[in-house]
């Protein structure tokens, strides 16, 4: 028999053998973590594992490695796992997004949760934990972008590939503003990450806020508040991976994440369960290392690729404290911030954007000279009106004393009316500046 024939028979025999599996055992189990024995020297931090469970298999992730054992955190609740349960090593975490994902709602592991059947997988798996494009070869920001919200288009004009933070306490209209942006912002594809969202709000957001047309161009990645912290954390990384898939095809992707704060809270839970020491307000050091690793992945692609990820990230400020640790860290990473103020919302003006405390760091490069002058004039009028509002209200200011104050008292209500916008309204940057010019006519 020839050597070639021997080789063919050997390959055929190998093909009939069951696949080789690297397997360990559960050595200890806690509320959130598992200690695993038997995989030392084989597994790396961040690798996925499949854990035997009476109902099938659960997925986990290696978070810590020591000489004698590994520690993993589960994507699902760990109830029912006993000592000695088999643990199979699966390797690095990957997702395989595909164009067929548009119009679908998935969980952070890429599994459909919308009841629409199986989800086709792409041909090329992508690493979930990936590096951003190299800083030295990354493309610059693109042209300005219509967001569809007048207050943002006029006072916080955004460019393609920019990253904006939406900072608000609970109950100030943050989710409503997100839905306006999801439906009205200019983009080829929208990827929406709902991190720690209320379960009852998912269908409401998809069916009412996005609607059929909005959903058709979107991929929604959702992890609800009742799911384990690893699943909530993974929702942010999975959404970023899906956005990178479409960006690398040369498309403009609008990535909306609600919220970065819940992502940070999930990281804190994982860090504390893994033995990390608490630092600022109980947040572990890992939180402030992971935030830039996530947020820096949004933005333009490498030079030569027209694709870009424009990121809109909500930040839930605790107790209306805009200087709390997560808000402060995120504000320093992003290219601008939009502040939603509770008092403005209580006064009945929505979206409750405080334009005097909001800014886009790219405004000087994306506005025409007359638009920039118009925006600055409106800001000065609002700032002056805020200074004298109490005097006017108390009757301590006499009309005619100061022409600038008289103009501010007359025009500030018109600017406030310009800033108010119904949820279903849509607009462009040109329309926003046209309306602002009308409001300031005669200034």
UniProtKB/TrEMBL annotation:
Primary localisation category: cytoplasm
Pfam assignment, any one: ATP-synt_ab
Entry annotated with the keyword Calcium? no
Q: Keywords on this record?
A: ATP-binding, Cell projection, Cilium, Cytoplasm, Flagellum, Nucleotide-binding, Protein transport, Translocase, Transport
Cellular location of this protein? Answer: Cytoplasm
Q: Which InterPro entries match?
A: AAA+_ATPase, ATPase_a/bsu_AS, ATPase_alpha/beta_chains, ATPase_F1/V1/A1_a/bsu_nucl-bd, ATPase_T3SS_FliI/YscN, P-loop_NTPase, T3SS_ATPase_C
Q: Which residues form a coiled coil?
A: none
Residue span(s) of domain AAA+ ATPase: 160-345
**What domain of life?**
Bacteria
Q: List the catalysed reactions.
A: ATP + H2O + cellular proteinSide 1 = ADP + phosphate + cellular proteinSide 2
Q: Does the keyword ATP-binding apply?
A: yes
Put simply, this protein is called: Flagellar protein export ATPase FliI
